[in-house]
Amino acid sequence: MLEIKAGHNQVGIYPALGGAIGYWLCQDTPIFYPVVNSHLAKCKNQIIAAYPLLPYSNRIAEGKFEFEGRKYQLEPNAANGKDSIHGNAWNREWDLESFAENKATLSLVHDPLKDGKKQWPFSYKAKLKYTLYENGLSVYMRFENTDRCNQPVGLGFHPYFPRRNFVEVGFSAKTLWNNDENGLPQGRMSNDGRWSFDQMRPLCKSEHLDNCYAGWDRFAFIRWKYSNAYLTITSSRVFEHLILSNPESAPYFTLEPASNMNNAINMPDISDRGLTILKPGQVLKGDIFYSFSVS
């Protein structure tokens, strides 16, 4: 594990475990919530607090898709044993490109002929840069299509947040996709009523939520009321979607900025699905900033 520091902040990074973050502490207070994420193939029983999602965010139903006239079958890597989820980069070992006191840059090269076409059938090179400041953490992602053909691509980042001390959440979005029991979109809904976070409101343990918000304005706010701790999330324009997962009775929730909606590759009729078609040599990139403060 590598550790970067800035002010009272400390972040532990696992290059060998999907480029994941193991912890983010501010004066011993966990900002990301460390969980034992057995879905990471290389680190069962390993504590993980956040990880990158590429070359797509969330699920591809049954790991099947068709692209430019060809059919593809990916290896299932979701908990249900049938879907493919979050790409393959989170299950791969990343190389350390550079390291300094407050920053680390990682890279990953995927070759389907060597690494397996069922992981992902197209070749790519990815870069992941974590930069820690006294007031927060920057996550920069870059994806380059190194194949000879076009490639469908999405980006995302998956942190866990603690649901301690009466947590409140706020963000705005145009609409949302309500997921079924398999985490796949059932249909588009209006962002109102119990689905709306336009006004900050509590996120309760008993309230199960698993939705993909579309047309997110790329600003979210979290407040842990009784500890007077605040976190703001801002992102670049590429992250048009925000996944909110609030598992019932779990000690954590997630807010995941993502470029694509769930199962986007199999939703060609959705104009704002967020899937980017990269030509050979083209690049998709974006960054997310997490700003933390205590009053």
UniProtKB/TrEMBL annotation:
One of its GO terms (biological process) is galactose catabolic process via UDP-galactose, Leloir pathway. It comes from the Bacteria. Gene3D superfamilies: 2.70.98.10. InterPro entries: Aldose_1/G6P_1-epimerase (IPR008183), Gal_mutarotase_sf_dom (IPR011013), GH-type_carb-bd (IPR014718). SUPFAM superfamilies: Galactose mutarotase-like (SSF74650). One of its GO terms (molecular function) is aldose 1-epimerase activity. Pfam families: Aldose_epim. This is Aldose epimerase. It comes from Commensalibacter intestini.
